[in-house]
Amino acid sequence: MNLEEMSSFFNNRVNDYEEHMLKNVDGADKYYIKTAKLIPSGSELKLLDLGCGTGLELDEIFKNNPTIKVTGVDMAKDMLEKLRQKHSDKLDQINLINDNYFNYDMGEGIYDVALSVETLHHFTHKEKIDLYIKILKSLKETGFYIETDYVASNQEEEDYYFNENKRIRSELGITKGFYHYDTPCTADNQIQMLYNAGFKSVEKVWQHENTVILLAKKTKV
What single DSSP character describes residue 179? Predict the structure, then answer.
């Protein structure tokens, strides 16, 4: 098996990405809509979208809140270009960053909502916790983070994916960098990682098969 560098993987699939997600990924006809409904309306609302891709979640979010201000971060420049083309009427509301979200400086106390949809199932526990700490700092005191992603059914399944990723990387001589291989974690582990990063309240608000939506609040309200 060969592993493809992450940005190349998504750039190479930009033309078919949306059709693939909406037609072939179980629950995609539901979870983009469910995710969007968790975000309140308001012209001054600021959203940080991590791994925004072509903006499938933003398609739904703009229906509910057409004036929301969005910062979108994605390492695949071709995906971002497609997002720009789709929402060319909203470019004054969208700040798109071509970078990986581990590197991007999110600032402190800026965003009302941070969001990731179907993007974090490629990374280790430590990578995720470090990212969650950055997300937490970027939120206003009343802010919250939404994570919509697919998860492993149990610990045995999670361990299998991580061990396979480690084995394949070793065989290919890959020691660093972002490469496309799915390593989903259990929902319980995801929740615990968010608590470990400092979120005060974490709730699983929706689940369909192996896809869950987690809502993590910066402070208890």
Answer: B
Q: Is the pTM of the predicted complex or chain greater than 0.85?
A: yes
Asked if 125 and 185 count as a contact pair (C-beta separation under 8 A), the reply is: yes
Over range 151-180, report the average pLDDT. 96
Q: Has residue 1 been placed in a domain?
A: no
Q: Are 72 and 62 in contact (CB under 8 A)?
A: no
Strands 201-208 and 139-150: unpaired
Domain total of the chain: 1
CATH number at residue 141: 3.40.50.150
The one-character DSSP state at 40 is P
116 DSSP β-pair partners:
50, 147
Q: Which residues span the domain enclosing 17?
A: 6-217
pLDDT digits (tens, 9 = 90+) for 186-212: 999 999 999 999 999 999 999 999 999
Of the candidates 54, 55, 60, 51, which has an alpha carbon nearest to the alpha carbon of residue 32?
Answer: 60
Span 35-62, pLDDT tens digits: 999 999 877 899 999 999 999 999 999 9
Beta strands in 55-200 (DSSP E): 69-74, 94-98, 111-117, 139-150
